[in-house]
């Protein structure tokens, strides 16, 4: 293991000027538009466009998700609209600090953090910021893992809306923000998925190469 | 391995746009949607409308809704004070579509839960909190954005078809806002809050009559208060009138068109509100009618008892009313005198003119009537009432007068002095006479009579009496009519006659003194028991004994003794001393001797014998008859008493009574005869024997 502990430049397909066909696996010349064997269209290199697009969409819909009411609560004939942050503040005011913390975490901190991480990763890849590939990959994995839990708010709203239907006494209806928030989460997840982790390594590789 | 043919490999040439991924559509769409939502929410935010209230009780920003016909059209956004802190300005967001048609006269009020006699309103606001209710008719002028809120809900929602009228009443005691206006028991409207009239007595209250019921309103319509219940006592008894329950609690007003010929009402017409139905029906609002003729009449004396609103009658029919009474100073021959001027309002229709006739026509008619003797006169409203009315009387014999027309003022009807005092005096005199009647004594007597009659009629005896009387009568009649009774006096008489004949014969013949002595003993015996009627049988008994004794007196013994007498007489006569007796005595003795000889020769003795036997039977018959005599007399007495009492009680002279009376008379006569007989026997028992 002469190479152990050292970072050797590894010859990649890209380095060899080849491009793999995703259908049959043949390594085609990088210039080829179609697979020389099966004729499938050779996809262009995964760029950051999709990441940016999804990220942007997610951020756009995140705005109404916070501005508009998430829950429309009708208690004793009295209608109350509560936004995400407003609801968390209300919870905190009633002493449910734990729940308020979870809501804030799941609905505000995590989505914002996701936006930030994805944007950072994308920028880092494009601008070839110096950073260890491992750390970036960890970040990416965290984003991927956490993404699904961001839907907790939407789940809560969906369940409450379905369960609490007592006409005048208490009724909960989802607001526009619920839909926006769900879309935001979905868009963010898609952004994370469309981010090709190989780009992380490519950037580091190319930088080191 | 065959080499594939060299392909024309071309590098991907891509422009910027071509390089653009279709994924970018997603954020573009997201932006579009977000912008859309934002625009819509901005658009939906509504128009800011300011409503000013005295207070904002229960209004909370963001929650309190603004509703139109119970449909939310907006909500309260903010509550703030007016600059001088005197009022509260409620900023509301009203839906743009609605806000565009809010007219400046739109009304807003806060709906709160309210419990009143009419029920509970706004109950939902207990849970949901208050809300602001808007009420308006859509208009085109949408510039109004500031409104003043009402403190209470308006009683009439804008846009309700109907007529608004005003009612005038002396007080608003029983009128609560929202109280129903009823027409024949059906609610057709309601009243608003009563308010005081400026500078006038009484109150006014606006009422709203809903369409189509407002067509029933005419100028002849009268309103009265049906609040609560009323009890009135009149000649026809006690009358209790109760309205419906709601009007009992909250007060209510009923109207009806009592007289015909009213004109359709205009909005905001003023009606009089009467205190009850009778007042409304009697006290027609002639004084308020537009076409009434206003006249006046002047009276010299007191008009006490005459009030504004009193009737004016013509031939007993109400034709108008007194509107006011005021003293007026007139100067006659430089002497001021005060006369009472009474203003009258006369209804042309009531005087028989056409419905559309006005005051001018009536005045014309009236002046004609006055020329023929129509005069105004005070008259009592009714016989027993002290209140007065004005009577228009026709006195053709009155001094001629005309309907005077003062310069400035209403026509004056000439008046007659009233004759009320005379009438009062007459009534008083009559009452005095009635008072002096001995009604109480009469009543007492009548009561006692009644009581007696009641007792008599009620007693079993009286009920049984007629039967008993009849039976008694029959019995009495039978007794009186029986052959025995009838024959009794005859028997006695014949017996006595027989006896007296015998005795006379004996007397005449100057028969035996011993016989006389024996008979005298019998007489004494009879006399000793002749004290009472009851003892009569004993007398008879002794008489019988005497007779028996007489019977038993052997004729031979008698003759023997008579012989002895005769012998001794013979001896006496034949004795020497006797020889010297006067020859008269000797003649007498000779006569006795002859009589005795005659006796002895028979004829007389059997005669006496048979006579005595017949006397004995007669005495026996008498004894038997007289055994019952006292009872009979007593019974007759009782009967008579009873019958008399009965007849006295019955009183009336009916045929039955006549018969009873005659029977009684007969019975009494019989009884009297018996008692006379008894008394005669008592007085002189010998009479039975001697026939005297």
From TrEMBL, chain A:
Signal peptide, first to last residue: none
This protein's GO CC annotations: plasma membrane
InterPro entries per record: PqiA-like (IPR007498), PqiA-PqiB_transport (IPR051800)
Localization per Swiss-Prot or TrEMBL: Cell inner membrane
Keyword check for Cell membrane: yes
Entry keyword Membrane: yes
Protein name: Paraquat-inducible protein A
Keyword list, A-Z: Cell inner membrane, Cell membrane, Membrane, Transmembrane, Transmembrane helix
Main localization, broad class: membrane
Membrane-crossing segments per the record: 51-71, 97-125, 146-166, 172-192
UniProtKB/TrEMBL annotation, chain B:
Protein name, per record: Paraquat-inducible protein B
Major site of localization recorded for this protein: membrane
Mce/MlaD domain sequence ranges: 46-133, 162-222, 294-391
InterPro entries, per database record: Mce/MlaD, PqiA-PqiB_transport
Chain coiled-coil ranges: 622-684
Keywords, sorted A to Z: Cell inner membrane, Cell membrane, Coiled coil, Membrane, Transmembrane, Transmembrane helix
Origin species: Gemmobacter megaterium
Signal peptide: none
Pfam families named among the record's database cross-references: MlaD (PF02470)
Compartments in which it is found: Cell inner membrane
Transmembrane residue ranges: 20-39
Gene Ontology cellular component terms for the protein in this record: plasma membrane
């Amino acid at each position: 293991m002469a190479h152990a502990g050292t970072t050797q430049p590894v010859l990649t397909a890209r380095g060899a000027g080849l491009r793999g066909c995703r259908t049959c696996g043949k390594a085609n010349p990088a210039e080829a538009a179609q697979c020389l064997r099966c004729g499938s269209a050779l996809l262009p290199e995964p760029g950051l466009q999709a990441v940016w697009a999804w990220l942007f969409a997610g951020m756009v819909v995140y705005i109404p998700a916070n501005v508009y009411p998430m829950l429309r609560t009708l208690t004793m004939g009295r209608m109350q609209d509560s936004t995400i942050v407003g609801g968390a503040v209300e919870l905190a005011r009633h002493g449910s600090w734990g729940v308020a913390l979870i809501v804030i975490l799941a609905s505000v901190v995590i989505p914002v953090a996701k936006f930030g991480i994805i944007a950072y990763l994308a920028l880092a890849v494009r601008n070839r910021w110096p950073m260890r590939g491992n750390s970036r990959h960890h970040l990416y994995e965290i984003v991927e893992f956490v993404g699904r839990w961001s839907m907790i708010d939407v789940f809560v709203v969906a369940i409450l809306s379905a369960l609490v239907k007592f006409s005048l006494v208490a009724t909960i209806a989802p607001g526009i923000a619920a839909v926006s928030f769900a879309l935001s989460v979905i868009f963010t997840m898609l952004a994370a998925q469309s981010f090709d982790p190989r780009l992380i390594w490519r950037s580091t590789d190319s930088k080191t190469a | 391995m065959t080499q594939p043919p060299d392909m024309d490999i071309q590098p991907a040439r891509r422009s910027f746009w071509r390089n653009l991924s279709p994924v970018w559509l997603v954020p573009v769409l997201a932006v579009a949607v977000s912008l859309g939502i934002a625009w819509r929410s901005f658009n939906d935010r509504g128009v800011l409308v300011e409503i000013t209230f005295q207070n904002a009780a229960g209004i909370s920003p963001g929650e309190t809704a603004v509703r139109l016909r119970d449909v939310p059209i907006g909500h309260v956004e903010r509550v703030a004070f007016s600059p001088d802190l005197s009022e509260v300005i409620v900023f509301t967001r009203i839906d743009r579509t609605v806000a565009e048609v809010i007219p400046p006269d739109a009304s807003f009020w806060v709906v709160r839960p309210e419990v009143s006699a009419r029920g509970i309103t706004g109950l939902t606001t207990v849970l949901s909190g208050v809300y602001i209710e808007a009420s308006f008719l859509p208009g085109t002028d949408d510039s109004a954005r500031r409104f003043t809120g009402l403190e209470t809900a308006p009683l009439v929602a804008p846009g309700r078809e109907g007529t608004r009228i005003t009612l005038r009443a002396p007080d608003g005691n029983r009128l609560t806002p929202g109280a129903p206006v009823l027409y024949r028991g059906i609610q057709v409207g309601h009243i608003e809050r009563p308010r005081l009239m400026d500078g006038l007595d009484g109150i006014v209250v606006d009422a709203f009559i809903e369409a189509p019921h407002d067509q029933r309103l005419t100028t002849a319509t009268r309103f009265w208060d049906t609040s609560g219940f009323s009890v009135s006592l009149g000649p026809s008894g006690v009358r209790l009138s109760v309205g419906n329950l709601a009007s009992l609690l909250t007060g209510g007003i009923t109207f009806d068109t009592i007289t015909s010929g009213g004109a359709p009402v205009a909005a905001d017409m003023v009606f009089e509100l009467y205190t009850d139905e009778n007042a409304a029906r009697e006290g027609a609002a002639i004084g308020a009618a537009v076409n009434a003729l206003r006249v006046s009449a002047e009276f010299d004396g007191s008009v006490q008892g005459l009030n504004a609103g009193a009737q004016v009658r013509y031939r007993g029919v109400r034709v108008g009313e007194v509107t006011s009474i005021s003293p007026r100073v007139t100067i006659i021959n430089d002497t001021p005198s005060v006369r009472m001027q009474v203003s009258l309002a006369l209804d042309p229709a009531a005087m028989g003119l056409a419905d559309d006739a006005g005051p001018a026509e009536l005045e014309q008619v009236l002046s004609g009537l006055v020329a023929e003797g129509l005069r105004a006169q005070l008259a009592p409203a009714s016989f027993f009432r002290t209140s007065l009315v004005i009577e228009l009387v026709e006195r053709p014999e009155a001094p001629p007068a005309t309907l005077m027309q003062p310069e400035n003022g209403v026509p004056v009807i000439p008046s007659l002095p009233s004759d009320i005092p005379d009438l009062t005096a007459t009534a008083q005199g009559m009452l005095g006479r009635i008072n002096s009647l001995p009604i109480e004594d009469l009543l007492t007597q009548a009561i006692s009579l009644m009581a007696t009659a009641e007792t008599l009629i009620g007693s079993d005896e009286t009920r049984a009496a007629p039967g008993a009387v009849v039976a008694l009568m029959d019995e009495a009649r039978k007794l009186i009519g029986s052959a025995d009774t009838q024959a009794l006096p005859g028997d006695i008489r014949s017996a006595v006659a027989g006896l007296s004949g015998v005795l006379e014969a004996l007397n005449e013949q100057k028969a035996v003194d011993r016989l006389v002595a024996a008979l005298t003993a019998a007489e004494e015996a009879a006399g000793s028991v002749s004290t009472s009627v009851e003892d009569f049988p004993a007398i008879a008994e002794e008489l019988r004994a005497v007779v028996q004794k007489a019977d038993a007196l052997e004729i031979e013994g008698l003759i023997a003794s008579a012989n002895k007498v005769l012998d001794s007489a013979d001896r006496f006569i034949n004795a020497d001393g006797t020889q010297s007796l006067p020859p008269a005595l000797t003649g007498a003795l000779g006569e006795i001797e002859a009589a005795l000889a005659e006796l002895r020769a028979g004829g007389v003795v059997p005669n006496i014998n048979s006579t005595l036997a017949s006397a004995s039977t007669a005495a026996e018959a008498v004894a038997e008859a007289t055994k019952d005599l006292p009872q009979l007399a007593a019974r007759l007495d009782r009967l008579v008493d009873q019958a008399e009492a009965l007849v006295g009680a019955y009183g009336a002279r009916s045929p039955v009574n006549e018969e009873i009376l005659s029977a009684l008379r007969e019975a009494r006569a019989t009884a009297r005869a018996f008692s006379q007989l008894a008394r005669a026997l008592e007085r002189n028992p010998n009479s039975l024997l001697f026939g005297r």
